[in-house]
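Lecture 7 notes. Example A: sequence first, then its structure tokens.
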Amino acid sequence: MGKDRTVLESGYTFANKGGSLLSHSFPEALLRVGMFTDWFEFRIGQSFLHEEEKTGGVTNVRNGGQDLYLGMKLADRAEETVSSDRRDPANDGTDRQ
């Protein structure tokens, strides 16, 4: 991601299982922060859930924050760029059967 860069990602998930289970998950936020060097990234994420489940004519409603996500990402090597005109040294241009 790069040192001194910050990215905020978010999403929304809706699930409906035949009317018996309805759930919404939001904001599914993930904050990514490049720290120390280009190959280190700190991550923190949080989401909230609203769920309605119907069982035997009774509707159970659950709301609340999901587990806090803390993590880091380390790059094990530099990215490589591949040119479109890069040639395979094993291919000398001749057709072999």
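Example B, a different protein, same format:
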Amino acid sequence: MITLIIAGFVIGTGYVVLCAAQPVHKCPRCKGRKVEPGGNGFARCRKCKGHGRTYRPGAARIHRMTWEHAAPWVRGRLRDAAQRLRDGAS
């Protein structure tokens, strides 16, 4: 029983790390080709809207949580760098 709990924790942690590192993957519907064959030729894929990439399940939430909670200092540094660029450009 404890082995299953540990295995589930390891797999779950691995998936969270994967989603944080690579939140998008090839679209499963068009397989990254961005178009799919239709009746009158080729049309943009409806799932990825012609981008060829889709978010992994849960990746958007993990990515948002990472930026909101785990890295507030990064947002501050980015905001300061943008302010310095605006001040220097004026």
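Note on Example B: The beta strands are 24-26, 35-38, 41-44, 53-55. The helical segments are 2-21, 59-70, 72-89.
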